């Protein structure tokens, strides 16, 4: 199975070996990725920025494939933030077409790989064609129980938290919840990620070291890995390097005793 799925890789043998080795230790259940550096990748080649985004889409395919083979539970990809509307219209239009291009060519493989497509973010002002492509993929993969490929589209963490807070206030006002009963779990339950494990690992490419309004609540205890590699240059090996680094870190979740290794 694994050989067939990784069959297109030149360095197939070493990838298969690495995957098997990493599977000996606990894996992150959920990996969140800030895919940054597409514009710089294009500029270095004197190409338009959209060429970088297109190449970035191909990286999404590679990383989805390897994450699925490794046995990761969920992969949340920051594909478009609530702030990205400020970009030139041509670039925004292109970014909005990427889900349909990606899913048009890749959906059969996602189905074969037992991947479940999901989305977080505000759908209300996404173009119809973008939503149609994502909804179609969600519908065709809803029975799958392998990797969850979760696209963050028109996603902003502050907006998500404001929305969750409003929902909690409504529950209190309608008498369904008392203020004393509000806990972390109350907030978790109102977030768009309510059904997912919290990310254990965040990867951000391109040398930027910030969260950019991405999963601020959910990443509270995640391990962070920042790499200088630009997203279009990010390979399966870079991804496996990040998982390896994660496995070598000690996660304490705020405690001292009973130190836990990832
Ligand atoms: C940030 O790089 C990247 C984005 C805003 C878009 C990310 C989208 C993809 C990688 C493709 C998504 C694919 C699918 C299937 C939805 P940047 O443009 O800010 O790069 P720069 O900092 O070098 O300018």
Automatic annotation (TrEMBL):
Question: What cofactor is this protein dependent on?
Answer: Mg(2+)
GO MF annotation list: ditrans,polycis-undecaprenyl-diphosphate synthase [(2E,6E)-farnesyl-diphosphate specific] activity; magnesium ion binding; manganese ion binding
Q: How is the cofactor bound?
A: Binds 2 magnesium ions per subunit.
UniProt-annotated binding residues for substrate: 37-41, 49, 53, 81-83, 85, 87, 204, 210-212
Sites where the protein binds Mg(2+): 36, 223
Signal peptide start-end: none
Q: Which InterPro entries match?
A: UPP_synth-like, UPP_synth-like_CS, UPP_synth-like_sf
Query: Could you tell me the EC number(s) of this protein?
Result: 2.5.1.-
Q: Function, please?
A: Catalyzes the condensation of isopentenyl diphosphate (IPP) with allylic pyrophosphates generating different type of terpenoids.
Cited CDD domains = Cis_IPPS
Q: What is one process in the GO biological process aspect for this record?
A: polyprenol biosynthetic process
List the top taxonomic levels of the source. Answer: Bacteria, Bacillati, Bacillota, Bacilli, Bacillales
One matching Pfam family is: Prenyltransf
Q: What is this protein called?
A: Isoprenyl transferase
Q: Which UniProt keywords apply?
A: Magnesium, Metal-binding, Transferase
Give the family from UniProt.
Belongs to the UPP synthase family.
Query: So where's the catalytic machinery, residue-wise?
Result: 36, 84
Q: Does the keyword Iron apply?
A: no
A single GO cellular-component term from the record reads: cytosol
Assembly description: Homodimer.
